[in-house]
User: Fold this.
Amino acid sequence: MAAAKRLTAEQIVAKLREAERLQGQGATIPQVCKKLGCSEQTFYRWRTKYGALKEDEAIRLKQLEQENARLKRIVAEQALDISMLRDLSKGNF
Assistant:
């Protein structure tokens, strides 16, 4: 099994722009996917997530997703700390 290719958001947006160009020239979705080197399922997933974005917006989206994940980890750690402190204050240790 081949390792999955991880493309950046900018690369995906560029591939979607290429797909639009190919479709404008009359290519079908399966032909476009073959040219891009991806499955139809991947193409549709990309189009759903990144279809309306420009490259700079895609970069910003990725940064926001990373920041959101970091903040979620911090909140989870704080909730665990609060829970432990409550247990200690009740003497349930």
User: Anything to note?
Assistant: The chain is about 75% helix and 0% strand.
